[in-house]
Specification:
It is a single chain. By secondary structure, the chain is α+β, with helices and mostly antiparallel strands. Helices cover about 50% and strands about 15% of the residues. The chain is built from 25 helices and 18 strands. The strands form 5 sheets. The chain has a 5-stranded antiparallel beta sheet, with no helix packed on it. The chain has a 5-stranded mixed beta sheet with strand order 11-18-16-13-14, with no helix packed on it. A 4-stranded mixed beta sheet has the order 5-6-8-7, with helices on one face. The relative contact order is 0.08.
Amino acid sequence: MDSNAIQTQPQRLTFATPIWLTPTLFGAFAIANGILLDWLFATINAWIVLAATLAEIFAVFFLLRRRHWVEIERDDAELFGSLLIVIAVAAYLVYPSLPGLLPPARHFDAVNHTVLAQFISENNALPRNFTGGVPPYFMSGYPAGGALLGALVSKWLGTLPIQTIHPLISFILALAAGLVFLFTHHVLRNTPHTTRHKSQAVPIAFLSTFLLFTAWAYFPGSVNDRYFYAQNISQYFALAAFYFAYRYHKARGTLWLALMPIAISLVLVSHPTPIVAPMLAAFIAILAYPHTSMRNKLTHAVILALGLVPVAIIYVIPHFAQWVALTGYGEASPFDVESIGVLLPALALIGAAIVWRTRERGAFGFIVFLIACVMAQPFVLFLARFFLPAISPYYFEKSVYLLVYPLAILAALPIASITHHASRLTLHAFRFQLSASRFIWLFAFSFALLAFIFFPPRPFAPLTLNELKIAQWAKQNLAAQNIAVVSGIREDAYWVYWPLLGKSPSDPATAAAYHLGAMTYAEWRGNPGEPDYAIIRNLARQPNDSTVQVIQQIGESAILRKPRERAAETPLPEFKSDYQVGDMFKLIGYDASDGWTRGAAISLRLHFRTLQWPPTRTGMFVQILDSTGNVVTRGEREIFNAAYPTERYPLGATLIDEWKFDLPREALPGDYSIEIAFYSQLTGDRIEIVGAMRRDQIDLRGFRSDN
C-alpha cells in the first residue's frame, strides 16, 4: 500500500470507543443542526434537530461499517472501566444538587448560560440583540453552543433549562473523564510496563483518571465552585480533538482526519478560550507525520482547514470582533498548588522523566507533545494581541486549564511502574494468591474511596425544586415587590426572583435581588419596612410565631405573611417640590440651609416618595455652584447611601436621604445654587426627571453666604 495515502484499512476500535463516541457526536450534531437552522430560517425546532441528529449518527455508523472503515474489538475490562468512570463522576457531580437538579449560583457563569439557554428555549432562536442584564452582554454571535445544547435537551425532556444545565454539564465532565480513561488505556497498552500484562492497563488507567479529582479547582471544582459551563464544554471538545489527533498520529485513518475539524469547530462555537492548543495539536500531528511526503501532509492539512470553513463563515467571521471581546470576560482560578494540588503534577513530572530516559517515548511522547501545545497557547495568544487587542488576560488564565488532562494521562506511567513493583513485593511477602491486575484494581478502588473522603461532594444548589414551585405560585397570586426571600445565602434570592419576576436571571431587576438574600427571619419579621410576605426554604427550621400566617406550602418550602405594621412617620419637608425621577420615586420636598457661615457645614435633606424598585443600582450626585457657575464642592454616591440592598426600599414610603458639604474656606460671599442628577450605575446614563426645567437635572433653591 502507498504510504503517502490516507490509510483506509479498518480502524480497530474497542467496544468502549463507539459507546463514548456516540454521545460526543450526538452533542456535536445537535449543536451544528441548531445553529444551521437558526442561520437558514432564523428559528430552531428542537424536534427537527433531534430527528436530523439521530439520522446523521445512524448514517455515520452505517457508513463506517458499510465501507469497512472500522472493526470493533471486544475488551470487557476496558468497557467496564470506562462505564464505571463515567457513571461515578456523573453521580459525584450531580449528587449534591439532588433532588432538584438545579445549578449552583456561586459564579455569574452559571447565570450567563442559564440566561442564554432560557432565551433560546423561549424564543426558539439564538440571540441577535440580547443586550440587557449583567455583564457580559450577549450580543449576536456570542458562542452559545453549550447553552443551545442545554436548551435543546430541556425541550426534549420537558424541563426548564435551569433544571437541565447542571446534570448536562456533569454528564459532559463525566464523558471527559471517560475519554481520559480511554486515552490513557490506549497509550498504556503499547508500553513495555504493560505489554506483557495487558490486564494491568485498565486499573492503572482507572487510577490515573481519578487524579483529576486532586485538581479541585479545575475538574469537580469547576462545577462546584466556579461553574464554568461553557468553558467545560469547550475543553471537552478540545480534549476530543487531542484524542483524534493522537489516533491520527498512530493510524492516520480517514475517520480521525474527519473528526478533528468537527471537534475543533465545537470548541469555537462553545467558547474559544482553549482553541489554540487543539488546533496546534491537530495541524502538527498532520505535518509531523513521519511516513509520508510533504505534498500529502499539506493535502491533509488543507482538508482539516476546509473542515473549519463552515463554522467560520456561519458563526465566527460575521461577529468576530464581538466574539473575541465578549468571550474574554470572566474570572479564572489561579494555577497554583492550592488549586491543582501536588500529586497530579508530581506524578506527571516523574512520567515525563521516564519518557525522556526510557523506551516509553514511543507511546507517551505524544502526551508530552500535547502538554507542549497547551503551554504554547499563552505564547501564541501573546503574539495575537499585537493584531487583536481585544484578547484579554482572561484567555491567558484559561489557557492552562487543559493541562490537567494530559497531566493525568502522563501520570499513569509512574503509577504503572510503582504498582507493578509494589504488587510483586506484596504478593511475595504475604504469599497472596492474587493476580497483579486484581491487586491494582483493589488499589484503584481504595484510591477512589480516599478521593471521595478527602474531596467529598459539596452541596451547592441554593434553589430547590420546591422553592422554584413556591416562587411560581407567588408570581400568580402575589405582588413580587412585596415578597422577601429569607435566607442567609444571598444567591438564594437571586435565583428565587427569576421565576418570581418572570425574567431571566441576568435581567437587572433579578440581578438586584442578588443582594437581598442575606436576610434572617428576625430581620424580616422585626422590620416594618420589609415586605409583608417571605419565601422560606424550610418551614420547620423557622421560629414558632403565632402572629405569622402560612399562606402556601409546597413540600418543605412555604410563603409566610406577617401582620402589617405602621411604619414610623417622617417629618414634613421645609420646601415642597414635585419632581419624578424616572418611574422609581418622587422628590416631594427638601430641607436646606438658608445661609453659610465659614467653617460650618451645608446640610441638605431630600424627601423621596418611593414608587417602585429601580431596574439597576442608582447613583446620584449633588453639586454646589457659585454665582459664576463654577462648582465649589460636589458629592457622589449611591442613592440613600446604599442603606437598602440594591435599593430595595419599602414601596409607598417616604425616605430621607441626607447630605452634608464643607465649602472651601476661600469661598467668596454671594449666592450659591444646588444641582442634583441621577444615573444608572450599570450604564452611566442619566435618568430623566419629570417636572424639571432640564430633563436630566434638578435645580434646587440655593443659599447665600455673607462672609
